[in-house]
User: Which sequence fits this backbone?
């Protein structure tokens, strides 16, 4: 059985860290995006492994997953989960880094809602 990742053993870079972009904030955000990309890659690999194992067991595989057409309830659920994820991942940056744009977007949404009603 494969050994689980021991997060206590993960090594972090030591010493001074150069600033690559125009600020430490942008560097930190870039590092977060790269770390998130790594997590997504691991999830995709694990999903691929599960699809292949299911296919080997005679159930379904990647082709059936690719061909799957979710019904309206599944689409609504996925949209809700996706939006919650977006808000968790992007919310802090949106709220802290671009508050003026957020205000403009809220005003636009309110105007659009008023016109639509």
Assistant:
């Amino acid at each position: 059985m494969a050994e689980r990742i021991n997060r206590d053993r993960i090594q972090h870079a030591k010493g001074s860290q150069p600033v690559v972009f125009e600020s430490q904030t942008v560097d930190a955000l870039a590092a977060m995006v790269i770390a998130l990309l790594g997590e997504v890659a691991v999830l995709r690999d694990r999903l691929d492994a599960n699809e292949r194992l299911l296919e080997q067991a005679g159930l379904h595989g990647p082709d059936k997953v690719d061909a799957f057409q979710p019904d309206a309830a599944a689409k609504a659920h996925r949209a809700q989960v996706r939006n919650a994820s977006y808000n968790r991942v992007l919310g802090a940056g949106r709220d802290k880094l671009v508050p003026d744009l957020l205000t403009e977007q809220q005003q636009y949404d309110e105007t659009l809602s008023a016109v639509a009603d």
